Structures are given as structure tokens and as C-alpha cells.
Amino acid sequence: MTTIALTGGIASGKSTIANHLRELGAVILDADHFARMAVGAGMPALAAIRAHFGDRVIRPDGSLDRPALAAIVFADEEQRAVLNGITHPEIARLTLAAKAEVRSGDPNAIIVHDIPLLLEARHNYDYDEIWVADAPAEVRLERLVDERGLDRAEAARRVGSQATDEQRRRIADVLFDTTETLDETLAHVEREWARVSAAALTDTDERYGA
């Protein structure tokens, strides 16, 4: 089974790449999905968040008030570290369980871990390759303002709270330049998918003596 990590800063175009990989046949394990599961009703992480941050981050129905929590952690690196310490172990547990389920169903699957905070979370999974959606910080800031409606100060805080462009580039086996046109980016994705698919098929043939 081939395992790829796909990462990129906020507004880097990573989700567009992940969606296209899903269309091509990849099994996508979405860290944001597991992050939402980790803080769902009755989960230990939600109780720990409430104990540390208080009722100000909890809605009347008992669910997590994400905007309220985001306002705290994006403005305070220490509080962000506390939140990550609470949620990341549970996200890792859920992700590994999902990976094991995929493996049992299709040992030849190509899994793509869609992980925005790969560097920040210090994930220690066993990846065959790391793919990075890359756009300069100033481009991503403009996307947040123009496409998501954030004010410039909030956009700058969110970009600044993550790993730098250079840090992500240093770990990349494959770098997708998302300042190119969409067609150019997706064509690059398709070339890399063809490459890893061919390698996975060769590995399967060798394993079974084909």
C-alpha cells in the first residue's frame, strides 16, 4: 500500500488537489474530518478543551464553538500549542484506525493523507512521499481576503500561525505550484498520480510474482 502526505498552508489550493486525487482513485484521509470527529459530542478532547478554555468556547447545545476557539488560538501561540496537545493525539488515533481499515479492505490502495498541519502537528506516520501545495504567503493572504472574506489582519494572523513556505518546501518530494493555472496544476497532479500508480502496480506484481 502506498501512503502519501498532502500538505500546504491555508488557501494554498491543497483541497483542490485532494479532490482531484479522489477523482483519480486515491483514498483520501482528511485530517480536518478527523479533527471534527475528535471534538464531537462525548469525545475526551472536547471535555479537555472545555476544562482548559472554559464555557466561552462551548455553544448552548454543548458543541464546540469553533469561531470562538479560533479567535483565541490564532491570536496566542501558547494557547494554540495547548489546543494542539489536546487534539492531535486523538486525530492521530482516528487517522491510524481509518488507515488500518483501508488496508484490510484493499492492500493495494493508494492513500493520501490530507494534512494541513503536517509540520505543526509533528505527525510520525510512515509516508512514502510528501506532496506540498505551494503558493507564496502573500498570494495566500490575498486569497483569504478576496475569496473567503477575511479582513487583512485576520488573514495575516492565520497565515502567520502556520509553518513557513520554506519549511514546507524543504520536506517536499513533490511540489505543486498553485500559482499556475488550474489546468496546469491538475495536469501536474495527474502526472504524479500516473507515476505512483505505475510504481504501486509494479510493486504488487513483484510481490505476487507476476
UniProtKB/TrEMBL annotation:
GO CC terms in record: cytoplasm
Keyword Methyltransferase: no
Enzyme class: transferase
Keywords on record: ATP-binding, Coenzyme A biosynthesis, Cytoplasm, Kinase, Nucleotide-binding, Transferase
Record GO biological process: coenzyme A biosynthetic process
CDD domains hit by this protein: DPCK
Pathway: Cofactor biosynthesis; coenzyme A biosynthesis; CoA from (R)-pantothenate: step 5/5
Top-level taxon of origin: Bacteria
Functional description taken from the UniProt entry: Catalyzes the phosphorylation of the 3'-hydroxyl group of dephosphocoenzyme A to form coenzyme A.
Name assigned to this protein: Dephospho-CoA kinase
Origin species: Pseudoclavibacter endophyticus
Lineage: Bacteria, Bacillati, Actinomycetota, Actinomycetes, Micrococcales
Gene transcribed to yield this protein: coaE
